[in-house]
Amino acid sequence: MHVKVVCVGGGPAGLCLAILLKLQDPAHDITVHERNPEGSTYGWGVTYWRGLLDRLRAHDPDTAREVEARSVRWSDGVAHVCDLTTRHHGDEGFGIGRHRLLDLLAGRARALGVRLEFESEVTEPPAGADLVVAADGVHSALRTPLAEHFGTRITSGRNHYIWLGTTRVFDAFTFSFAETEHGWIWAYGYGYSGDHSTCVVECSPETYTGLGLDRADQAEGLVLLEKLFAGILDGHPLVARPGASWLNFRTLTNRTWHHGNLVLLGDAAHTTHYSIGAGTTLALEDAMCLAGALREHAGLPEALAAYQARRQAELLSVQSAARYSAQWYENLPRYIQLPPHRMFALLGQRHSPLLPYVPPQLYYGLDKAAGQLEALRRLKRWLGPRAARALHARRR
Question: Largest Cα–Cα distance of the chain, in whole Å?
Fold first, then answer.
């Protein structure tokens, strides 16, 4: 059955869904509305891992091939703690400019016959559509009036962060931790093209106000950050988008993801802390799942219910990992005094529900031993969630 689909939001989730639905049936009538002009986007580069490419290739080999061809890759992680450095080899990661990714997806959608309407702001579900997709981000205009129905919940993180770019091209996923008289401040850096990297800077509220970042204008703030991270910038500047500001990360969840013929997609449905680098991956996976559900179920209510059930189940472990990752950074002083290689090892274990409740040195020793003995690995997998639930309940 041919359907008329209106997608509000021209980010990765909305464009990917439009592509996949057109591939399923070229006769589908699909329009994507994007409130911003074509070619304008926030952010710098986004990250993803091999698993996303494999899943995308199964749905659309042409798009997967183009995304991989336009990405940069790394397999090492580097941590700089003051004057000490440690490097670890890890899984292959990829970075691609958000602008480049959107151009690629928009071109693919157009070639398949999707109508793209830029500078077109839609604030209520349009009439006449069989399916309306709210892919309009965390502040979704389509979701907000129905927040009670969706069970929308938004919680703000404690730390402050700002999303920046730099012309310093990092050859590995780079962490840099700088100590100041007002506490620690740190940066996550990764390349996404041959001439630019993303650089996200984060710190506690005490450090933020102590350094005067709450009072500095954008130019003054960049000068201060360039001094603090001079060791990794190697003389290159930090760059901010016009209007870029310090934020507290907002974690958004919804109890249900659909209402009538309206369905939530991507950041309109859920967000996960940037420190796990999964936002774009989860948005594209939402699109693949929704397209699959619409293909497999003849009725729209059944398709939307199946999409919600599958994605909410798949997100449980990711949302848990993101929550513990954010907490790790909020409790950085607990780990930062360890030798750099041990601190970096626990940085890699920050998704563990057990880590917050075990002394860091002891956890490091147990984790190292568990890596060598299968019995200890099984015990750790079994004990972690149970101990975390028990300790969390005791603290409430």
Answer: 65
